[in-house]
Amino acid sequence: MAFSHRIAALAAVVAIPLGIAATSFALTDRPKSPEVPPRVELDSGSPTPTPTRPAPTPSDEVVSRPPVTDSPASDDDDDASDDDRGEPGDDG
Question: pTM for this one?
Answer without folding.
Answer: 0.32
